[in-house]
Amino acid sequence: MTDILPVLRLLCALLAMFAGALLVPLGASVYADDGLWECYVVSILFTLLVSAILWFSTRRFQRELLPRHGVMLVSMVWMVLPLFAAIPLMLASYEIHQPMSFTHAYFEAVSGLTTTGSSVMSNLDQLPLSLNIWRTFMQWIGGMGILILAVAVLPLLGVGASQLFKAEAAGPVKDTKLTPRMTETAKGLWGVYFLFSLFCALGYWWAGMTPEDAIMHMFTTVSLGGLSPHDASFAYFKSPLMESIAVFFMLAASCNFALYFIALRKGNWRGFWRDVEMRATMVTLVGGGLFVALLLWFKDVYAPLDALRMGLFHVISVGTTTGYTTTDYLNWPVFAPVFMIMLSGVATGAGSTGGGIKMARMLILLKQARREMARIIHPNAVQPVKLGHAVVDNRMIFAVLAFMLVYGATVIVLSMVLLLTDLDPLTAFSAVLASVHCAGSAMGRLGPSSSYAVLTDFQLWVCTLGMLLGRLEILSFIALLTPTFWRR
Prior knowledge:
This protein has 488 residues and is mostly helical. It is built from 22 helices and two strands. It has a two-stranded antiparallel ribbon. Strand 1 (386-387) and strand 2 (390-391) form a beta hairpin. Helix 2 packs antiparallel against helix 6 (129-143), helix 9 packs across helix 10 (211-222) and helix 9 (182-207) runs antiparallel to helix 11.
């Protein structure tokens, strides 16, 4: 029991930071005079109260984070913070006479913070500005990872950042040091993230969005979250220029942010263009978009230019786990939506804001498969697995294989659980993929023209678990359930 007290001490600091994040919708409420400012004030005070109670209860427990503490804190944060993020959603829903249950509010909060983009809310165009700001802002702070932001702040409390950074980092890049100090690395990554955000918002504004729309869509573009303050999503704007800007920033955000950090720091972009994972991601997304565009043209769904516009936008949007739409892609030939949803599992880079398996893992798997095929022909051949010019350590290969095994088992088990609730197979399987990939885009009853509100509470909790497992990259959460983890 005492082993968790240092973790709770750090959690209280993160809760205090999260209370500060609630100042954003509070400011929007005051600006728009939408009458919801009291909801945010109550949420801030309650969050600070819980933070203070934890602080006074655990202030004596201060120590350097061990790997187990990092895993515990990361898992706890992604499960606990949505509880506090859901409070303003519930309070505001009663104020606007559209009351949300706790299940719906927690689902919406988890979807926001994990950048999944699934939603149970409707009539988005009629929602108060501050509520839409909060929905989209949650995705922005969750995009680069709340905890990577915290890495830059926790040293002020005398807390080491290394284990926390490793526990939070996505994909097989956890041990990559961009600077000698993890704190400087976290600050650098957030600096790049902020620059992306600034240019994206300015781009949308220049293309004709209102300042409010530009900011909200910036929040959900650079985070690859995809929530929109409009029921029609990007179709609301009917603007090829805005769609082009979205495509550019979705592609940019699907790459490893560490590559931008290194390129800006050294003033040399050659390493960026030579990165194997980045090139594979770009080829997969753009090539997939062109392929679907050709399919839509050959099937006489659209004229050539419209097919190109629709194919590129939706493949890149769904493939990067963003989920913006300008039409109901379920009306296309069935291959197209299935292909896009399958892409959402692999077409983002490790260290990006996207979800899914990550392109780096897929490349390692493919190269390992090629090595095994070569061994069938030449049993004694020594053929290392390489990514670019770097040799991949066997421990990394085993870790990727273990991840894929657990990932596949998770998708199967959660899908079977949803099937037990009499949900049709297409909806069940695509909902689990959308949740575990933190993508949001699904099929069946959960297509672009519907919301997750059609699911029962139990089904929503299954999808919520899928989102949390996907954000924690599954193994971290499962490690908590093993007796070995809790042994000293």
